[in-house]
Amino acid sequence: MSERILPSADRIEALLAAHEGPWGSERHVAEVEDLSPGLGQALVLRIHLVGREEASRSQWIVKIPGGGARSLLDSRDDQLDSREAAFFRSVLPARLPAGLAAPADAMVVPDDPGEWIVMRDIGPVLQRPWTPETASTAAARLALLHAPVAADTDLLDLPWLERAGHAAYTHHIPAGHDNLDGLATDANLKDLFTPAQVRALHRCLEAAEQLNARAGRLPPTLVHGDFHLKNAGLDAEDALLLIDWEHVAAGPFGFDLATFVSLYQAFGGLGALDEPALLKTYSRALSDLTGTDVADSVAVGYAIVHLTWGLHLRLGPGLAAVRLGVHDHSQEQLASALADIRSGCLRALSLAPIAGVNTGLRSSL
Q: 17, 291, 337, 345 - which has most CB atoms within 10 Å?
């Protein structure tokens, strides 16, 4: 990956001074921290602004879409670098109901050749630990995001929304097949799955077109598209705050909950989740808000995302990173990566019947 090039404090200060915004006037950029995630394509900075008096200090996030480094994820989304700015310029942030929010005072600032997004820093909220109890609260809050579309379907007509985000990584399917075939000859990986499980995972990868067609028949809603522990936090009033809206999409019920559960352990969630209970909490809240029983649609959408988004990432770039030795410098990281790949794939196989995929497995996993 290429090295990130950070803008200087002087450049940031000059850009803010050239535009009126909630950061106010006569502000000095005292410090710049690089918060950019390793897999993201944006440059993410925390800046410390100081007014005339040192005590007048505030923290902001500056996000520069496309300013970061590329990764093995190899996104083919040609709107990834512009979608979050479009989101903050749209009516959507103002339409988020009580109990759900994006970062406050977000503003899109033009910069040659692109745009910067400046928003309040909600770091303390994002740093709160996730537990099964807070996960249950988040599942109920997700319904607040997904339900409004039932009353205003025009929200899904916004042209920059991601479409079929659950299938955004289908281009990794050939690599997934190759990686599965390579397990048998790798002494460190040959026991990751049984031969029957390997055959079943091949079948799941081959079912992508079938799964996409079924997803297209499910009721669509507005989804965050990249909902996981590092992109969300609960504040002191248990409102759900969400960052990183570059994958905001039209997608099926259950999409966001599936990505959250899929990455819960890998991203540091504490304790074991009761997945059936989470699905029930989310389905009940969504059904209450829409006045319609959506449990069946939720179950199918949830299963499909694990079989597409989850499998394509784990068997494609995830397994490729292991085979390329990306984690070899740390046995702990390697063990964690393998545990995530195995658990995510086995979860997908267990959900295959709900999504209508015949894996050929005769017994439960």
A: 345
